[in-house]
Structure prediction request, 382 residues.
Amino acid sequence: MENLTPAILAGINLDRRCCEKDHASLDELGLLAETAGFEAKLKVLQHRERIDPAWYMGVGQARQIRHLVTENGIQAVIFDFELSPVQLRNLEEILKVRIISRTELILEIFAKRAHTKEAKLQVELATLNYALPRLRHMWPHLNRIVGGNRTRGPGEKQLEMDRRRLAARIGKIKKDLVSVRKHRVEIRKRRQYMNRIALVGYTNAGKSSLLNTLAHATLYTESKLFATLDPATREVWLGDGVKALATDTVGFIRRLPHTLVASFRSTLEEVRDSDLLLHVVDVSSPDAGEQIEAVQEVLREIEAHTMPVFYVFNKADLLNGRHVKLSLLRKYENHALVSAKTGEGIDWLKASLREFFLELSMNRQRQRDEEHAHAAVVSLKD
Prediction:
């Protein structure tokens, strides 16, 4: 069994009306922590009226957490928010254990899960972009040494050297990703006349499992957050001679770090180049509605929010007799209730997809006929 590092999870509630949502976010942080190799021994959610600029959560709460750290042999405190360099330094001086923000935790998971060259480059780029503005905090012991008049101390010199090294590495990674992106563009050009589906959804919603069921494939799946990062494309036969290429994409999450969205933009372009989005939702999750909104937020960020969407409510086998919230199903009219594990609803889903692509094919043919007719009219006038 894997040895997990004992940790405390800490969150803030700034509005009592959102207390339930903040508890859910802290629970999700626990799943992220477990995926990254930590064991959430304790969870602390503090209610505050406003953020403390020096401590974020307040010095009193920080001292209470320090007491819990000492009592329970805690080796890390994971915060469900971002910390400024000042807040980070102050908290480290009190807590005297490793401090991790939500963004750092997600970046750490992505680094562990990346396998292909492209994914590794994308994760490294996101990590360096996140680290660059925070370098000053990495050298506090040197920064305290003051240089002579009008000169910089060794901390400042080291800081400038590190900034240059990071900037050079970021530049190199961007160049490498450009060549990878060109390769992707060529692949997409070859597929432009094919029916294309992109699977999107919250992490651990079962996108890879669904693609395996639809395409009779054997993609790697695991019941953990961000089990797969690398996009995979498989051919799916929908019946009556209709087929489509379906691409599994990286899972989304609440407050997905902007550095990751930016770094994975070339991969996420697979989403924008598809004909239809299959938005896979874990219907057994009590937070299904909030998870849908989180995915929609990322789709807006990559400008894919206006694309045709078909909602696939997966994991129906986990409902255990519980009924799906009818309000949720009514809100998303184009949907299917399925189980990638048992096959429930898969035939109906394929039939719906087949109908969509048959109609799309007819519309495309109609558009081509209109373009040809218009070109003929223009030719006669000339």
Residues 194-366 form a domain with the Rossmann fold fold (CATH 3.40.50.300).
